[in-house]
Amino acid sequence: MAKRSKSYRAAEEKIGDAVYAPLEAFELITEVSNAKFDETVVAHFRLGIDTRKADQNIRGTVALPNGSGKSVRVAVFAEGEAARAAEEAGADIVGSDDLVADIQAGNIDFDAAVATPDQMGKVGRLGKILGPRNLMPNPKLGTVTPDVAKAINDLKGGRVEYRADRYGIAHVVIGKASFTPQALAQNYGAVYDEILRVKPSSAKGKYVKSIYAASTMSPAAQIDPAVQREYDVKGQGGDEE
Questions:
Q1: pLDDT single digits (tens) 176-191
Q2: Which of 115, 150, 154, 158 sits between 20 and 30 A of 19, alpha carbons compared?
Q3: Could you tell me where the beta strands, DSSP code E, fall in the chain?
Q4: What contacts 48, CB < 8 A, 6 or more positions away?
């Protein structure tokens, strides 16, 4: 195991083994995040699901009320009116056969991809390239749609993807360490709402087993699963349970 830095060990001591309410956890996380770049803050939900069962494979997207803090480059597979709508909505790359050829040549300069339904015959040929990078347009995620403008606005406005791994843990970006703790708590509340919304009916026993959150270079803080929200989207205090 790599030796931890002095600052990391100090952060571990500060956070300790306590279980925190969301706002308190994010106050600590932003306080100990001292990297020279703006660290990403991620929440990790350990769920009582069996992802070997098809109906318990949790995956989707959720809009963060305060955005993700990330600048997202969006590529759109479209032609005609849909291509013009994509350009007007701020897509970074728009194309069809030419975009497919660029990607096959190894030119992948985007963070998310959107496609109109009629383009999926072409996009399907890119599955082995885009799939492993989690860039494949997917109707369940709202990225295969005739309304490309809405998909672009969602992606650029702070919509993030979540997906439970084989251990039943959903890792979800909730913002940046430069956000206020209140903004992170608001985003966390929106994510928690979504995690509860998609609970599989076949899941047995305790659904949300534990929750941790951490920034890129800092130790994790454990969050009390019993406290879902502490702040509304306007940032006013008050428990919303």
A1: 999 999 999 999 999 9
A2: 158
A3: 19-20, 40-47, 59-63, 74-77, 93-95, 112-115, 159-163, 169-176, 208-215, 221-223
A4: 168, 203, 204, 205, 206, 207, 208, 209
- Residues 45 and 207 sit within 8 Å (Cβ to Cβ): no
Q: Cα–Cα distance between 135 and 160 in angstroms, integer?
A: 13
Q: Name the DSSP class of 168.
A: S
Q: How far apart are CA 105 and CA 135, in angstroms?
A: 16
The CA-based angle 87-70-162, given to 5 degrees, is 95
Tokens representing 170? Answer: 């959903």
Can you tell me the distance from the alpha carbon of 154 to that of 172, in angstroms, rounded to the nearest whole number? 16
Is the pTM of the predicted complex or chain greater than 0.70?
yes
Phi-psi region of 63 (alpha: psi -120 to 50; beta: other; left: phi over 0): beta
Q: Tell me the C-alpha distance between 72 and 152, whole Å.
A: 9
Residues 152 and 110: beta-carbon distance below 8 Å: no
